[in-house]
Amino acid sequence: MLRFILQRLLLLPLLLFVFSVVVFLLVQAPPGDFLTSYLATLASSGSSVDQAQVDALTKQFGLDQPFHVQYIRWMEGLGRGDLGLSLEYQRPNMELIGERLLLTVLLALFAFVFTWVIAIPAGIYSATHQNSILDYVFTLLNYIGVATPNFMLALILMWVAFSSFGVSVTGLFSREYEQAPWSLARFIDLLQHIWLPMIILGIAGTARLMRVMRANLLDELNKPYVVAARARGLSEWRLVLKYPVRLAINPLVSTIGWYLPQLFSGSLIVATVMNLPNIGPMLLRALVQQDMYLAGSILLIYCFLTIIGTLISDILLAWLDPRIRMENA
Amino acid sequence: MNHATPLLSVHNLQVQFFMDEGIVQAVDGVSFDVFPRQVFGIVGESGCGKSVTMKAILQILEPPGRIVKGEILLNRNGSTIDLAKLNPNGKEMRDIRGAQIALIPQEPMSSFSPVHTVGDQIIEAIRLHQPVHARAARQIALEMFRDVGIPMPEQRLDEYAWQLSGGLRQRAMIAMALSCHPRLLIADEPTTAIDVTTQAQILRLLRKLQEEHHTAIIFITHDLGVIAQMADYVQVMYLGLVMEEGPVDAIFHAPKHPYTQALLRSIPSVHSTPRVNLPTISGSIPHPFNRPSGCPFHPRCPQFIAGKCDKHIPPLRSVGGVQAAACVLYHDVEVPR
Ligand SMILES: Nc1ncnc2c1ncn2[C@@H]1O[C@H](COP(=O)(O)OP(=O)(O)O)[C@@H](O)[C@H]1O
Ligand code: SF4
Ligand SMILES: [Mg+2]
Question: Which chain B residues are Cβ-neighbours of A241 within 8 angstroms?
Fold first, then answer.
């Protein structure tokens, strides 16, 4: 088990190296660079910059250097824990990403917990009360949940909140806390705002997870080991929770790994619509502006989180399922 | 043979599965008595309702299956209770399961959870019915493992079922079933899917334990050869109905029902020439939605009498003194059932 984790951890730098090359290639791929798109934006608004300033910027960021030189510059920075300067904002990327990343991760975790806390019990109920009225209600809600795009749900809920209660539910903070430093009051303010985006982001995942849980559990419920447990006189709910639920959840654990990054990227449109101080809109803007070090850093962090997420779910799975644990021992 | 009161008495049990496509009559009026210390054999081809009958007795039928009629009388210290009337999930029924009547399920290979140790599940069974702490329960489990001949019991208790061989798994299952000293043990095809040598060992073990613990056994199999070694009394089932019943010698040496005769012809014997294909019963078991009218065996019966066998279901009637058969050859039926 320990060896298995170590193996995976040793693989981490190699994976990150491969991903960093791919990421850098991708953000470099569009024609032109930051300056061409920057100048185009300026030109379309009627102003212009003098050539000397352009040359200075080109030199500072090494935009005239070949690909590998630029890549090595970026890597050197990363080695020192420096994500580089944003071309557009002229501020360290670390600073720009930091708080947004924290909020993004927080929101993703909230949505994740929401999804599991709702989906697993509901899935268990549906499977153990197959074809009951509530099972049908869940099924209907599931279809709606899966079929409604989350930005649409966001728009509808925002409209309902605004038209019937006169409150605006955008953002993650009230105005007075937006720029404030972290404090308990700010955190409470965050909690008061985060639940709506949490539900909106989590609802489709909840619906899907509930369906999968229901199907998995139905598969397990009449397995011989359940019949045997019933035959030795175990009460029904204790039995269901101890045996088939455990086996039905195991395969779901392996989905945690790709669930987290998916929540990140899936939140882009919702974040834009709801004006959330998330990382999604920032990534979009960085890509459009060809702010390559900013975009590259964000994408690399995504990759890192994905790898970590997969590692965590692998460890969880090995911990839960002795068959996998012993195979890797 | 036994004039005591029966331990378990099943009367006219009917079980149906209410499917979207229609109703499946899985058990269609089965009756039998099991006496203390008796080994009661039930034999029949796959799908004839053996397992469903046992699940009905334990009240662990899975939906959409339901007992629609009949009594399941269990004698407990002189008083009888009708299990069919108990709430399947109620405390009273749960206290009987595992403690009074224990089951060795049909599929020993997958009857242990793969993510819990064997010991975990046996200790659970013990603690459900005996007021002992975990440590004492583990001691009992160890004793049981020794009794059923599992080598290195201490170590085996902490292993998972998939780490054990087929024979060991079945022994562990037997240990679990006997751990609470049930008065009746239901062994549902306990030797299917086990190689022949192990099969013989398991049968001997069951016989030995049965004598030591004075347990009554309902022994289910599709293999008449196994029944001959194990049972005192035999019931032959076909499509949810009893075709013939009687003491094991009578069934083997003087089978009356054409179905029993056909079954007997299809088992190998020491007298038959090797490498000659055994006669099989012609035709196949009808689909449950397509039950034949009259005698359920008539489409495959070599002695079928048109206009008679397909009219009414022949009732089970005594023939030749000790046994009973449900066949028009032995008594004309005029009364519709
Ligand atoms: N879960 C179920 N759903 C529907 N029908 C079932 C179910 N279990 C058993 N049956 C029906 O009951 C019949 C008897 O099954 P069973 O008792 O398992 O046979 P066997 O004699 O091989 O143990 C089957 O042929 C089938 O039609
Ligand atoms: S009743 Fe008729 S069909 Fe049925 S077993 Fe007897 S002879 Fe054969
Ligand atoms: Mg069966």
Answer: none
